[in-house]
Hints:
Number of domains: 2
Strand content: 35-45%
Helix content: 10-25%
CATH topology of the largest domain: Dna Ligase, domain 1
Shape: globular
Order of helices and strands: EHEEEEEEEEHE
Number of helices: 2
CATH architecture of the largest domain: 2-Layer Sandwich
Radius of gyration: 15 Å
Distance between the termini: 15 Å
Amino acid sequence: MAKKSEVSIPASRLKLGIAKILEQEKFIDAVEEVPTGHGEIVIKLKYDKGRPVIRSIKRISKPGKRVYVGSDNLPKVLNDFGIAIISTSRGLMTNKNARKENLGGEVICEIF
C-alpha cells in the first residue's frame, strides 16, 4: 500500500518459509536472509503496472483459535486463483501441493 520496493522483518523459520513460498508462487520478487545480530529477512515486493501483486493477505489460524483441516477439506482461494499456506507434517506448502500429496494441516493464511 505504501509503494515501497522492499521491506525488512525480524527473522524466524516460519516467516522465512512463508516468504519462500510467496517467491515460488511469484507474489514477491526476492527473499534474502540477512545475518545481523538477531537475523533479518529482506523481501523485495512485486508490482504490476503500479499495483501490488499481493491484493490481500488474510490470517486464518490465530493463537486464540487454531484452524486445522483434513486433506479432503483444503480451502480454495478465489476458485484456486489465490493460495492458502498450510503447515503440514512435511513442512509449509500451498493448498494445491497439499492436495496433490493428500495432506491436511493447519491453515496459516490465504493470499490472492
